[in-house]
Amino acid sequence: MGWEVFPLAIRRIVNGNHAILRSHARPVQKINDAIITLLDDMAETMYENKGVGLAAPQIGIAKRLIVVDPGEDRLIKLINPRCLEWEGETVDVEGCLSIPGIYGEVPRASRVLVEALDTRGKQLRLEAEGFLARILQHEIDHLDGILFLDRAIRLVDPEEEKKEEGS
What we know:
The protein is of the alpha+beta class. The protein has a domain of about 100 residues: Peptide deformylase (Peptide Deformylase, Alpha-Beta Complex). About 25% of the residues lie in helices and about 30% in strands.
């Protein structure tokens, strides 16, 4: 019997009222085909929804898994990620696939050091700055039941922001 090929699946993103978004995700104990497929589905779902990051709780699964792509098709899949170091601070506007249409100014560390497992179970450390650092912090927050609204210092209307930039 040959290998079966399963197509990637686009998962439903849960909204901000869903209880799973406020719970702590469980660590992944064993990296198997189901976890790899889940990460692939998460990436497909993120791209389909034009996001730059997605955490497993956002698709209703309480596991410590995230996918991020800061641009240029630079997909990063992380298992059991955690921030080891934070440095500096920057404030920028964030949104969230689980809270569509709402944006806020959120202070974040400008540089982070993240430790995680890759899809082969190998431990890695990822040093990130700028946009990638922001995405990683946002998605790791999801694993701990924290939404960007909890950290926002001010909500913003994207249409108003565009008008101010144009004047």
